[in-house]
Each structure stands twice: as structure tokens, then as C-alpha cells.
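Annotated sample (chain length 295).
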Amino acid sequence: MQHLIDTNNFTDSQITDLLEDAKRFKTQRPPQLLKDKLLITLFFEPSTRTRSSFEVAAKRLGAAVVHLDPSRSSTKKGESLEDTFANLCAMEPDGVIIRHEENEAPGILANMQMTPVINAGAGNHAHPTQALLDLFTLMEHFDGNIEGKTIAIVGDIVNSRVASSGIRLLSRMGMKVLLVAPKPFQPENIKLPQYENLKDVINQVDVIMSLRAQLERHAKPIFEDYDEYARHYCITKEHLGNRDILILHPGPVMRNIDISDEILDDPRCKVLTQVKNGVFMRMAILKLLLLDSNN
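Output written by the structure step:
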């Protein structure tokens, strides 16, 4: 039984298989490979893109999906997460997709070895399917070779599970990763080049990954408001000029705070491509975990 708690659960050859499957699914709709499979989604935090992307991915492969609303579940009546999970597994699903505010939650459930667990985002540590769809988007753009390319991750890095998973995966794939944020937004335990001003690295980078500003997560205010934050870290035409730099963002984008309207409409911005590619990568992940790893 294989799980996806973070991208290190997959070997290099499995990641290559995922990229090839996602590319194939994008060019040709696959047969109903998972027509007899049942998935349960368990989202303890709000989600639009990830949850709907998983549902579309599963249904395109023929699987059935049942959504459990934790706000109405027995966890609100004092039942532990483990007991809730065990009761769901008694119904014999083929996998559970979970989002949780605690970093350790998906791993705890995976260790119970009752059904494959897929981490759809946990705490500030891991969002593996986002990292994998970003990898797919980058490989597609750079014709299959991202080794030696430089990516700047810009924004609230310390609170971002997208940044955390992305750093691990993209570094592993040979990219040079730079972090751009005010010092309180920078992680202290990651040994990567850190900068406070985007202008200091703009001529070095091939890709910018903008993150959602999460000022509310900081107990001590760094900026008076989002407008002040945007004056320093919003990705604008002034920053990019005519440079050939790819722009990514995991969403939801805060317009004119994370990325300007002008850049969101720029062909260098791949936000909607990421959303589209997310479906194909999640199809590949479901195929690997529910079909391939059992053969």
C-alpha cells in the first residue's frame, strides 16, 4: 500500500511516470481506468481548486467520489481523527484524500495502513500534489529540462505548504531555488539564498512563484495593510519588463497584491495553466496509487 504524504514518497522513476501519464492524459482522454474505485474526500480546511480538481480527476478516470463535510462529522462531537478515519475505512473506500490544519495528520492516518492516503495540503509543511503539478507545468514549458533553471519564491514562505513542498521537489529536480520575502516571512530552518527585494534577483531568475499574502497569520504586524505589502512584493510589469520569466501562483490570487491585473493577463503568467495541469497530474497520481502500485 502506497501513500502520498509528501513528494519524497515517490521515487525518481515514479515521478517520471507521473509526468509521462499527465502529459498523455492532457493530449488524449484516457479510458475509465478507475471505474470500480471509490474515493472519500475529507477536507478540514476550505478548498476550491484542490478539492474540485481531485473530483474532476477521479471522475475522468471513472471513479466515484464521496465528500465528507468535517464540520458536520463526528469529529465535532469529540471523536478523534483516527476513529473517524477508521470508521470511513470500514466502508472499504479505495483511498482517502485529506486536507488538515495539522502537519502530521495525513502521516498519522497513513501509518494506520487501512487505505491509501493522499495529502491534499497539511499545515504549513506539505502540499505534494501542488508541487507535482507545478513541476509538470515547468517541465512542459521548458521542454522537459529544468535542471539549472532558477526559481524565486516570493511572499509568505514561512506559512506556505506550497513553498515547503515546492522547495523540496524542485531542488531535487535540479532547480536553483531563491527565497524573496521580508525576514519574518522567511523560514529559519531552510538553507537557501534569501533576499528581501525582488529587484536583487530579477536578472537571475527563469521563474517566479508568487504566494498568497497571509498577513493575518502573523501575530506581529509587518505591514500596516495589504496595500503596503503590495508596494514591495506584488509582481508587476515594472518588475518584469520584457524579461522572459515564467509566473506561477498556487491560487487563490489576490489581485494587485500578489500579482497585478496586467501580469495576470500576460502570456508569461501560467496560473490557469497550473489549474488545468492540476487535473491531469492528479489523474496520474490516482492511477499510480490506486492502480499501478497494486499491480
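Annotation: The mean pLDDT is 94.
Annotation: Residues 129-270 form a domain with the Rossmann fold fold (CATH 3.40.50.1370).
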